[in-house]
Amino acid sequence: MTDHPCNGMTKAQRATFERIAISQPPYAGERTLTALLARGVVERVHRESRDPISGFTFSWWEYHVPLPVHMQWCEWCSEQPENVLD
User: How far apart are CA 42 and CA 53, in angstroms?
Assistant: First the structure.
């Protein structure tokens, strides 16, 4: 059996990882995100966009799961019982 990439982490950390893995916003506190970054199961990318009219610059962080970690998570998911969400 394949281990979940967040094996041994808290329920909140695991839920945040799974939201990021399906391209959803993390909706998590800084400590949770820091733990995921430290473990290497997510990466953070800084993004910027400039409004062409006002010149105002927007910036934000995006979180992604590295491909090898995502593949491990997909493998773990494939080994779970069909009714895991029930």
Answer: 34
Rounded-to-integer distance, Cα 18 and Cα 20, Å? 5
Domain coordinates in residue numbering, the chain: 11-78
CATH architecture of 11-78: Orthogonal Bundle (1.10)
pLDDT in tens, 5-54: 999 999 999 999 999 999 999 999 999 999 999 999 999 999 999 999 99
Cα 66 from chain centre: 9
**DSSP per residue over 12-24, as a string?**
HHHHHHHHHHTT-
